[in-house]
């Protein structure tokens, strides 16, 4: 698996918040519903990995929008896989006909059809670029504001995933925190 890594897009240090551009996946896969820009469509797709003991299931399909170096990127038909360690972006979906990688010292840029897609720095043979979620995708609610933190699925997402929610006691938060 490590040999197929091409680069990763880093937002912060936690592994769950990094995007890895990977040539060995069939779909874009995210472990956090935060960057999803459209409604999650429930599904149940088994995700095959190189580990026979791994049991990963995609629970939904969605479109994801992020910003990298002031460029808006949209990834369609992404799988929501909550137990996935990293967010994976399928390399072959980044370009239409050709991909050119330019390197100068410790800097790089990716070009497709004469347009720059991404740029960043090279550290330990990995190409690193930052990303963020467009602020237009962020929402707020006056109900349970303590629960609406980064990485916490709200009642609407939990309901869509078929998880019953007691609005006064978010057991899912306590359960998630006990496993991290």
TrEMBL record:
Ranges where the Retrovirus-related Pol polyprotein from transposon TNT 1-94-like beta-barrel domain occurs: 24-96
Entry superkingdom: Eukaryota
Record protein name field: Retrovirus-related Pol polyprotein from transposon TNT 1-94-like beta-barrel domain-containing protein
Organism, as annotated: Austropuccinia psidii MF-1
């Amino acid at each position: 698996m490590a040999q197929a890594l091409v680069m990763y897009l880093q937002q912060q240090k936690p592994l769950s918040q990094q995007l890895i551009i990977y040539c060995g996946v069939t779909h874009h896969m995210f472990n956090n519903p935060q960057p999803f820009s459209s409604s999650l469509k429930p599904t149940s797709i088994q995700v095959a990995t190189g580990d026979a003991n791994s049991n990963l299931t995609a629970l939904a399909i969605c479109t994801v929008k992020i910003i990298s170096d002031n460029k808006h990127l949209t990834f369609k038909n992404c799988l929501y896989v909550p137990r996935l360690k990293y967010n994976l972006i399928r390399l072959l979906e980044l370009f239409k006909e050709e991909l050119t990688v330019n390197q100068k010292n410790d800097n790089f840029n990716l070009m497709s059809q004469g347009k720059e897609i991404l740029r960043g720095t090279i550290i330990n043979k990995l190409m690193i670029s930052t990303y963020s979620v467009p602020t237009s995708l962020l929402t707020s609610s006056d109900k349970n504001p303590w629960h609406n933190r980064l990485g916490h699925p709200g009642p609407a997402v939990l309901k869509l995933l078929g998880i019953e929610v007691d609005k006064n006691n978010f057991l899912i938060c306590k359960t998630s925190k006990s496993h991290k």
